[in-house]
């Protein structure tokens, strides 16, 4: 039977007809009809038909892409056109299968089939790289006819290069599975008729609403919200992640879709605009919904086209391209990206606001369970509303009379203070009134003593200051009351180190110090927890945490400018001059402790003396430690580790001791003798001659830098290696708390050894975070490296350490070179999205014995090897090294001396070293 073009359902039979059909299904049918008339062999007909369909399909999609790329079509309309193209292809394929290949039997009434779109495709929106989700519905049991038709359609779609998610079910199976599985229930909720038996689709809708949805609204709501919470947990718990997932992340498209699914399920609406008449959204809120959806779709479609695949994460390497495609341009490309991402985060913030209003409206309407037992939480506050109440409890939330904010704008702060004190949220009606009352927050309110008192108590609350600040920030109150904070709301820093926007980072930092104070982080930060009890003015510390990055994004040093801003804020909030001065000092110096700990050799006495000279006060030292811990923890997951904690603890104890006149005041020689005596006592089982040899072969620096436990371990390793005549010995000790493996290398010293070892470690996948280099009096090198793996954890299990030892041996013997091994490791592609200036700085004041060289550049495999090779080729010896990576940026610090053991002072020599180091940083050492 030839394939005809007349015996098929009219397009008007579909439940939803797109406004634009970029692919004309009628023309395609006519083309296939002509093929059917000309070609009798089924295999050949299918092959030729596929070529015709593919050509029409690809041309139609290419036209959509061209319109998007040239700016003539926005993302959401493109998604609708792509869906319409897909509709036309599936409709034609169905008819082609039924007419040309598998005609129905007039005797078999069970040969009926309906093709239904589900998922995003069911909403009539299809991203360029998305899967095509289909549900094939049959009346009851499967027949040979429907199996063949389904198989034909699927194979043709696969041959078109599409990813197809599909299911085949009878009507009873659809009902049964929808009752059991919320995902299937949601798929049927979104089901859209494509082609086939329209009556079968109508039956599906009827039984779904009568047998599945009726009476199960609250269960569906709870299941979808639980699903959302799990999705947020997996994606990172924040809508302000700097590499957001625009589909699944918090504040992304899936959150908007969840709201619509719930609304559709509860109120049987087919358009989100209909939610207004059910008092779920106001007209303004729906307009926010519509704009947010359109923006996110625009980003998603352009991201798919840019990456050439279904990529949903707005990664650093994609952000510049998407920003440009969205029209964000600037002479400074980094500024364009940050402006685009700020627009994205403001939309994500709007989505969060809509979600809160929606969920709270459901609770008010008893569609969603509340989480609080108010009689327990608010004794004495549960009273009936009277006409005299400004604030009252309604449906488990604090509500307010609509006129009280205009009557007294201080109530805009008072309601959040009350919510924090009582531990319950703000009612959606009150939130709506608050957002419409933001203009009431003016200079007069900002200067009001009562308003500032309430704000300061929320900021330093002993309940949950992070939640209080987030509530104020999400409604816009925080940014209006503290305009300095409003400037950095949704501000992104285009780098790999910071995981959150600036406002999110600051609020999380406040939350961290509260957790430290309450004991929530006691296992990770026992010292900081104990120190918090000794801090006299905790309110000062909380203010400093909120303001420490307040000047980010402004030209100049954000620490110094931030201190100036902090002074104005603190005086306005009611702090005394002395307390304000302390906040300003902490803001200006908030990086000094982490920089000193991670970029300077704490074992060098001058490092600690210089640090103490800056800090001076024991109270400043205590507050600075807690601030530094809270700040680093708020940068993002995985940034904090035990190694950083160890460095901070060592610096704190050394500084505290010096400030109080403790161990630092003892003579140099006395400390060396104490260390030697402690080792000798621990080596009592070793022959006297060997014991004396191990003690006599080290210089003073070794005794002052390393603790007794390490001295013992090294002495036994060296003794064993010497006895066996080994030319290379390795010792590896992992420390889970410090999150490092300490690898000690013992071998005859020779020029370039440090570079060879660092090259071997890089080739083995290790990341060096600290290095100490010692040479014994009899010519052996004892180099100690603190190494982490790619995930920031300890490097060594026995297998990896043995593999590392063999790699070092091959390099030392000249059997291989590190660069040949680097080629086998994947390049760090994420870092390549950033332009990191290469810099070399020399400091001859930081140490009495060595020149401190600080090298900065973009991270890559082999960076440390190239830099240490350059130092070797410059004739310098390395006594210690601190290696720090901040996302895409590396900051390596080396304590070096020349061949005579002196500092490098001559300007020409420093200039020559700088030039070779800059070539090394940029990977051009051999050019």
UniProtKB/TrEMBL annotation:
InterPro entries: ACT-like_dom_sf, ACT_dom, GlnE_rpt_dom, HD/PDEase_dom, HD_domain, NT_sf, PII_UdlTrfase/GS_AdlTrfase, UTase/UR
Enzyme Commission number(s) of this protein: 2.7.7.59, 3.1.4.-
A GO molecular-function descriptor: nucleotidyltransferase activity
SMART domains found in the cross-reference section: HDc
Keyword Nucleotidyltransferase: yes
Catalytic activity, as annotated: [protein-PII]-uridylyl-L-tyrosine + H2O = [protein-PII]-L-tyrosine + UMP + H(+); [protein-PII]-L-tyrosine + UTP = [protein-PII]-uridylyl-L-tyrosine + diphosphate
Region Uridylyltransferase: start-end pairs: 1-386
Keyword Ribosomal protein: no
Cofactor: Mg(2+)
Activity control: Uridylyltransferase (UTase) activity is inhibited by glutamine, while glutamine activates uridylyl-removing (UR) activity.
Coiled coil segments of this chain: none
Domain named ACT: residues: 742-819, 852-927
Family in the record: Belongs to the GlnD family.
UniProt remark on domains: Has four distinct domains: an N-terminal nucleotidyltransferase (NT) domain responsible for UTase activity, a central HD domain that encodes UR activity, and two C-terminal ACT domains that seem to have a role in glutamine sensing.
UniProt name for this protein: Bifunctional uridylyltransferase/uridylyl-removing enzyme
Originating species: Rhizomicrobium electricum
Annotated gene: glnD
């Amino acid at each position: 039977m030839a394939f005809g073009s007349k015996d098929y359902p009219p397009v008007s039979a579909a439940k939803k007809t797109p406004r634009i059909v970029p692919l004309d299904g009628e023309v395609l049918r006519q083309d296939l009809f002509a093929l059917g008339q000309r070609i009798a062999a089924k295999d050949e007909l299918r092959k030729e038909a596929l070529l015709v369909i593919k050509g029409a399909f690809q041309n139609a999609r290419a036209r959509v892409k061209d319109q998007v790329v040239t700016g003539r079509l926005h993302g959401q309309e493109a998604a609708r056109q792509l869906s319409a193209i897909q509709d036309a292809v599936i409709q034609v394929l169905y008819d082609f299968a039924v007419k040309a290949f598998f005609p129905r039997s007039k005797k078999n009434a069970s040969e009926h089939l309906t093709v239904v779109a589900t998922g995003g495709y069911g909403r009539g929106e299809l991203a360029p790289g998305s899967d095509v989700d289909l549900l094939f519905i049959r009346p009851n049991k499967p027949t040979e006819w429907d199996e063949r038709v389904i198989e034909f359609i699927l194979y043709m779609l696969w041959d078109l290069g599409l990813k197809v998610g599909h299911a085949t079910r009878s009507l009873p199976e659809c009902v049964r599975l929808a009752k059991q599985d919320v995902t299937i229930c949601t798929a049927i909720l979104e089901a859209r008729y494509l082609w086939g038996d329209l009556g079968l689709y109508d039956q599906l809708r009827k039984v779904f609403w009568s047998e599945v949805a009726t009476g199960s609204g609250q269960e569906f709501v709870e299941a979808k919200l639980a699903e959302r919470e799990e999705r947020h947990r997996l994606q990172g718990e924040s809508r302000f992640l700097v590499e957001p997932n625009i589909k699944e992340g918090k504040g992304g498209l899936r959150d908007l879709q969840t709201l619509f699914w719930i609304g559709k399920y509860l109120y049987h609406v087919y358009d989100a605009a209909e939610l207004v008449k059910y008092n779920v959204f106001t007209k303004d809120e729906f307009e926010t919904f519509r704009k947010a959806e359109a923006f996110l779709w625009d980003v998603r479609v352009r991201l798919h086209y840019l990456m050439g695949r279904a990529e949903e994460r707005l990664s650093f390497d994609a952000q510049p391209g998407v920003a440009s495609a969205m029209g964000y341009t600037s002479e400074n490309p980094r500024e364009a990206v940050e402006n685009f991402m700020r627009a994205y985060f403001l939309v994500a913030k709007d989505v969060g606001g809509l979600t809160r209003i929606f969920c709270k409206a459901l609770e008010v309407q008893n569609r969603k369970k509340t989480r609080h037992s108010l009689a327990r939480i608010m004794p004495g506050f549960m009273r009936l509303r009277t006409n005299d109440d400004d604030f009252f409890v309604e449906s488990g939330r604090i509500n307010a009379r609509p006129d009280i904010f205009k009557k007294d704008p201080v109530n805009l702060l008072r309601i959040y203070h009350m919510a924090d004190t009582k531990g319950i949220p703000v009612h959606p009606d009150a939130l709506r009134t608050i957002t419409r009352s933001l203009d009431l927050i003016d200079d007069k309110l900002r200067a009001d003593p009562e308003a500032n008192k309430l704000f300061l108590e929320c900021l330093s609350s002993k309940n949950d200051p992070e939640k209080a600040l987030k509530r104020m920030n999400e409604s816009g109150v925080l940014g209006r009351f503290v305009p300095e904070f409003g400037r950095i709301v949704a501000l992104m820093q285009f780098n790999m180190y910071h995981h959150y926007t600036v406002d999110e980072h600051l609020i999380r930092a406040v939350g961290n110090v509260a957790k430290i104070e309450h004991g929530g982080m006691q296992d990770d930060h026992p010292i900081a927890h104990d120190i918090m009890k000794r801090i006299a003015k905790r309110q000062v510390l909380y203010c400093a945490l909120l303001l420490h990055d307040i000047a980010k994004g402004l030209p100049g040093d954000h620490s110094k400018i931030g201190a100036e801003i902090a002074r104005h804020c603190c005086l306005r909030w009611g702090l005394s001059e002395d307390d304000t001065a302390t906040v300003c000092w902490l803001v200006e110096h908030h990086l000094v402790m982490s920089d000193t700990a991670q970029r300077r050799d704490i074992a060098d006495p001058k490092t600690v003396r210089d640090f103490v000279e800056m800090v001076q006060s024991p109270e400043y030292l205590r507050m600075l430690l807690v601030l530094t811990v809270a700040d680093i923890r708020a940068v993002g997951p995985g940034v904090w580790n035990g190694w950083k904690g160890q460095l901070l603890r060592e610096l704190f104890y050394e500084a505290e001791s010096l400030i109080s006149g403790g161990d630092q005041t003892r003579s140099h020689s006395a400390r060396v003798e104490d260390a030697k005596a402690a080792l000798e006592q621990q080596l009592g089982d070793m022959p006297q001659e060997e014991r004396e040899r191990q003690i006599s072969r080290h210089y003073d620096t070794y005794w002052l830098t390393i603790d007794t436990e390490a001295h013992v371990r090294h002495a036994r390793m060296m003794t064993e290696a010497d006895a066996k005549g080994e030319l290379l010995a390795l010792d590896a000790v992992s420390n889970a708390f410090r999150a490092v493996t300490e690898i000690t290398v013992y071998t005859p010293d020779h020029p370039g050894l440090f570079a060879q070892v660092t090259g071997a470690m890089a080739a083995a996948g290790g990341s060096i975070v600290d290095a100490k280099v010692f040479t014994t009096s009899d010519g052996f090198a004892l180099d100690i490296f603190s190494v982490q793996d790619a995930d920031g954890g300890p490097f060594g299990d026995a297998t990896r350490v043995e593999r590392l030892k063999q790699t070092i041996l091959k390099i030392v013997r000249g059997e291989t070179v590190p660069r040949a091994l680097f080629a086998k490791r994947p390049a760090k592609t994420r870092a390549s999205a950033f332009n990191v200036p290469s810099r070399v700085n020399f400091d001859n004041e930081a140490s009495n014995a060595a020149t401190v060289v600080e090298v900065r550049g973009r991270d890559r495999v082999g960076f440390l090897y190239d830099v240490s090779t350059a130092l070797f080729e410059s004739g310098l010896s390395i006594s210690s090294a601190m290696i720090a990576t901040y996302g895409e940026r590396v900051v390596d610090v080396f304590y070096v001396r020349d061949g005579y053991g002196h500092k490098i002072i001559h300007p020409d020599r420093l200039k020559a070293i700088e030039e070779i180091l800059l070539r090394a940083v940029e990977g051009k050492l051999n050019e």
